[in-house]
Design goal:
Largest sheet: 7 strands, antiparallel
Radius of gyration: 24 Å
Shape: globular
Order of helices and strands: HEEEEEEEEEEEEEEEEEEEEEEEEHEH
Number of strands: 25
Oligomer: single chain
Distance between the termini: 86 Å
Helix content: under 10%
Length: 368
């Protein structure tokens, strides 16, 4: 009788729908990205090179405590700028590094200008400079105030936007005579670089939030209720702050994708990880869709500790058309995976060992 009951129960179970026939739960998958991102380690001796397609990391040695970077107009080389005012060119194809050349009293930030020129904020000479890589000529365009650092030239070349961390302002400069047309007040707490949005109607400002009214306020600086960094979005018509996108850490720099759909954002000291990251933001939705690790995976793989256990970055350049092959000539050894074992998908095992040297990273904000 008992056996018959068991058999009847098993028969009833067989009539129930199988779990395997149910549709799997939907899961959001972030968009895939292509190209290469170049990230300057804050006052460090190398540039981190991120393959946006695979997430693999490489690095280019600069040989100096660099602060900012700019791609050449043909995207075949990168210029590294040291905080003490020197510049050097590094070719991607050949890997050739040219001699450092003194061009300014100091360099805080750079941006691409007209006809291949590079605009530079000099925090020591308190000047906005124009550097011509081809000739090496440097021209002073205008004087700037203490705290001025972040710089961006509008695509049509008519305006320059200059951030001042100490004053929490963004100056709008007319490029025809280099006169300040207007100044946006209260642009943030500890602001760094800025860019005009693809639509042209808003200004996206990197908000590090390190300090507020001269007191520690942000992640890695305040010991109590530390504020996350993000993007301040300012309406260029009203000059009012209309939104704030929380990214995390201390946001330093940003760049928009060529189609205007995404913003690439770099941050230092991401919470819980003490990591530097590149974050991708959906411009229309104004929300984070993807994160890339920039520093710790490399250091863990190499067995080299980060100075002070913290990761700091200062500048970003993105080339969405670049590939791993187009830049590997300038890499120290090559791209490698952060997967266990650390073997690269591009190089054989014998060529994946990286130099263990590292330059100390300053904790000071970029425009200090």
């Amino acid at each position: 009788m008992f056996r018959a009951s068991i058999c009847f129960f098993l028969f009833l179970l067989s009539l129930l729908p199988s779990c395997s026939s149910e549709k799997p739960l939907q899961q959001y998958r972030p968009s895939e990205f292509n190209g290469i991102a170049y990230i300057q380690v804050s006052r460090g001796s190398h540039i981190s090179v991120l393959n946006l397609k695979t997430g693999e990391i490489g690095r280019i040695l600069t040989g100096n405590k660099s602060q900012s970077i700019s791609l050449s107009s043909d995207k075949k080389a990168i210029y590294a700028f040291s905080y003490n005012g020197s510049a050097r060119r590094i070719d991607f194809l050949t890997g050739k590094s040219y001699e450092w050349k003194k061009i300014a009293g100091g360099v805080c930030n750079t941006t691409s200008g007209k006809a291949g020129a590079i605009l530079i904020t000099d925090p020591k000479g308190l000047r906005l400079l124009e550097y011509e890589p081809g000739t090496g000529n440097v021209k002073s365009l205008m004087s700037i105030r203490k705290g001025a650092c972040g710089i961006h030239e509008r695509k049509d070349g008519s305006r320059i936007y200059l951030t001042n961390q100490r004053l929490s302002t963004v100056s709008i400069i007319n490029t025809s005579d280099f006169k300040i047309l207007e100044e946006i007040q209260g642009a943030g707490n500890s602001i760094h670089n800025t860019m005009v949005s693809p639509s042209g109607d808003t200004l996206w400002v990197a908000e590090g939030n390190e300090f507020r009214n001269g007191k520690p306020y942000g992640v890695g600086f305040s010991k109590l209720e530390a504020m996350q960094g993000g993007i301040n979005i300012i309406n260029l018509q009203t000059k009012a702050l209309e939104d704030f996108i929380i990214v995390g850490g201390n946001v330093m720099d940003l760049s928009f994708s060529s189609d205007g759909k995404y913003a690439y954002v770099i941050s230092s000291q991401m919470p819980e990880y003490d990591e530097a990251m590149l974050t991708v933001v959906n411009v229309a939705a104004r929300r984070v869709v993807k994160n890339y690790s920039l520093c710790k995976s490399c250091h863990i793989w190499k067995g080299v500790e980060l100075p002070g256990g913290k990761a700091f970055v200062s500048a970003l350049q993105v080339d969405e058309k670049a590939t791993a092959d187009s830049v590997k000539g300038a890499l120290e050894s090559g791209f490698f995976s952060s997967e266990p074992g650390g073997e690269s998908t591009l190089l054989d095992r014998k060529s994946t060992r990286l130099n263990s040297s590292h330059t100390d990273i300053s904790r000071m904000p970029s425009s200090a």
